[in-house]
């Protein structure tokens, strides 16, 4: 009994000073935060309460810190829990005072805090309301709200909602490229190509330079190009070292230090991929040690670090970080974190030969991973289809931008000419000088316009190439679906859809490969379609000749060429499939002639012909032929005498 009393006394003696020290430390931190707030003009009491409205000062303080371009500057000044408390207080005051403008603006900052903490169930409803009543937000705030909302939907596996937000961003001019959405949808090759084409590597702000090299390296890493990823991470690390050495005062030194640590962590992943686990551990620890204000980065890097220890069969060190991760992941809503964490725990328990636990976490991992993969796969095709529309939008934006630049240069030349005319009246010598300057400027303008036109041609060719590739992806996706089908009728229908997609794709191929960027050479285009259909439908047993009589000088714009191509596709497909049943030889003739007021297109075969019932058929093919002719404001005739003949008349 005496021993028990003695032990209790010693525990009190040891614990009381620790508790007292902890209390003093907490009070010391609170005093430090109150002082920092006072330096920013924000007055609060010991409980961070304020009786007077201070919304404007809080928002101004937040904006001045956030302008550096990194959320850690906000967290370095005050913990996010104190920011959250201050902002909620001001929101309540604004609501009571019916100050809806400040209420909306304060909700923007509150949503940002919840998003950074991965509390998406809190951030998403706020951001949806902000978008519905966006009149009180600046353009930058609205853009950040859309960006964060899209990311939140991705990280909670609501990919359809994320795609809907991206469409709104493109429509409102709040997104220049789609690399990040491709990345989220695990279309890694498309993400890398999009980033290389549309993102400018020459950035003025240092933080933006770090961001460029970091994202580019990550995209190469996700494509399995580890050496290229390592190259760009090392460029970023070298840039951090240069800025730290030069003592750049525009950006706090801690920004360079944290970015340097982040590049080291990313390099650690490269070494981990190559099996150099000891080297990876050193680099990952350097990143983790400077990630106290970026919990999400710290969590992902700790998962990689623990996996390195598992690979080295170092169970005790792996367990240290697994236990830390258990605490950090509390209340997190990012599904990707839990997928990687469950995989880590499965590997750890396999190392410890605790197979029941390993099986449990393997089941958790597979369930969450399958749900994630299923959701991704379901929405990839939708994203690729919508990308055709997005590419067209980007094409229009590029052309508009180029036209504005040409107009700006032309106006500049006109202004120079006007000034020259004014100075002619003053003195002959000044006039001669100004005429000389004007000539130089005019030459420069001409060179600039020619250069811009060359750039526009390259961009348009690239856009045609990308649209063709996207159509090919859709073609391939349908192929994958066909393999899973057992119904011949459905398989045939999908094949017809593929033929129509291929016909549209060939227009973009023609424009990409030829000098003209707007007119399609009809003879070459129809020759390509006929060769494709012939290879698709004919076997070695049949010898069907395709005769083309089309003037090489006939060319149409893209829209009309696609319509003509679809007509040829439907008529030729019918002929190749049905006209020569029971025959080994046959002839299909296609001619386009210029007639008064327009063109005459004749497509005929010397096959079996068709009955009256077949001529009035309501099949999809006949429906398309009628509507395609109507779309061209034309008319057509069809007869069956020694085969089948279609005569189609349309205006120029």
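^ Assign residues to that structure.
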């Amino acid at each position: 009994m005496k021993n028990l009393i003695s032990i209790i006394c010693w525990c009190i003696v040891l614990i009381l000073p620790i508790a007292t020290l902890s209390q003093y430390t907490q009070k010391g931190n609170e005093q430090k935060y109150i002082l920092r707030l006072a330096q920013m003009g924000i007055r609060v009491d010991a409980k961070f309460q304020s009786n007077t409205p201070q919304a404007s000062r809080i928002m101004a303080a937040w904006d001045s810190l956030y302008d550096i371009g990194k959320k850690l500057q906000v967290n370095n000044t005050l913990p996010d829990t104190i920011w959250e408390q201050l902002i909620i207080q001001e929101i309540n005051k604004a609501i009571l005072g019916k100050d809806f403008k400040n209420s909306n603006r304060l909700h923007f900052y509150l949503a940002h805090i919840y998003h950074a903490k991965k509390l998406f169930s809190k951030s998403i409803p706020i951001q949806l309301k902000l978008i519905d009543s966006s009149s009180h937000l600046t353009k930058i705030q609205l853009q950040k709200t859309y960006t964060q909302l899209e990311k939140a939907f991705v990280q909670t596996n609501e990919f359809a909602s994320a795609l809907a937000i991206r469409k709104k961003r493109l429509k409102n001019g709040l997104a220049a490229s789609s690399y990040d959405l491709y990345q989220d949808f695990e279309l890694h090759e498309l993400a890398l190509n999009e980033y290389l084409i549309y993102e400018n590597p020459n950035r003025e702000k240092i933080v933006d330079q770090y961001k460029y090299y970091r994202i580019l390296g990550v995209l190469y890493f996700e494509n399995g190009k580890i050496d290229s990823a390592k190259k760009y991470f090392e460029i970023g690390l070298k840039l951090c070292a240069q800025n730290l050495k030069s003592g750049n005062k525009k950006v706090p030194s801690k920004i360079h230090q944290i970015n340097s640590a982040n590049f080291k962590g990313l390099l650690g992943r490269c070494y981990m991929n190559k099996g150099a686990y000891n080297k990876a551990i050193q680099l990952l620890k350097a990143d983790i040690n400077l990630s106290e204000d970026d919990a999400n980065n710290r969590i992902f890097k700790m998962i990689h670090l623990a996996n390195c220890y598992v690979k080295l069969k170092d169970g005790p060190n792996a367990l240290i970080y697994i236990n830390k991760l258990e605490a950090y992941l509390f209340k997190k809503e990012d599904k990707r974190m839990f997928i990687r964490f469950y995989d880590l725990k499965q590997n750890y328990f396999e190392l410890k030969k605790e197979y029941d636990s390993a099986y449990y976490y393997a089941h958790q991992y597979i369930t969450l991973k399958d749900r994630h993969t299923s959701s991704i796969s379901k929405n990839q095709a939708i994203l690729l289809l919508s990308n055709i529309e997005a590419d067209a939008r980007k094409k229009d934006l590029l052309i508009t931008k180029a036209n504005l630049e040409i107009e700006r240069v032309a106006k500049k030349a006109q202004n120079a000419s006007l000034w020259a005319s004014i100075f002619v009246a003053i003195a002959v010598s000044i006039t001669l000088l100004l005429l000389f300057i004007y000539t130089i400027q005019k030459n420069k303008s001409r060179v600039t316009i020619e250069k811009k036109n060359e750039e526009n041609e390259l961009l348009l060719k690239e856009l045609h190439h990308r649209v063709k590739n996207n159509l090919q992806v859709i073609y391939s996706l349908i192929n994958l679906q066909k393999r899973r089908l057992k119904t011949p009728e459905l398989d045939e229908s999908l094949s017809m859809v593929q033929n129509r997609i291929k016909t549209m794709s060939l227009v973009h191929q023609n424009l990409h490969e030829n000098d003209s960027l707007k007119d399609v050479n009809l003879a070459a285009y129809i020759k390509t379609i006929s060769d494709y259909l012939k290879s698709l439908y004919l076997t070695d047993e049949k010898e069907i000749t395709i005769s083309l009589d089309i003037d090489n000088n006939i060319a149409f714009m893209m829209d009309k060429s696609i319509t003509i191509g679809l007509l040829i596709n439907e008529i030729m497909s019918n002929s190749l499939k049905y006209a020569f049943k029971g025959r080994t030889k046959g002839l299909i003739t296609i001619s386009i002639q210029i007639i008064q007021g327009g063109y005459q297109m004749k497509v005929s075969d010397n096959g079996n012909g068709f009955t009256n019932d077949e001529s009035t058929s309501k099949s999809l093919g006949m429906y398309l032929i009628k509507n395609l002719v109507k779309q061209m404001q034309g008319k057509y005739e069809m007869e069956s005498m020694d085969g089948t003949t279609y005569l189609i008349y349309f205006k120029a």
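The domain at 520-652 is CATH 3.30.565.10 (Heat Shock Protein 90).
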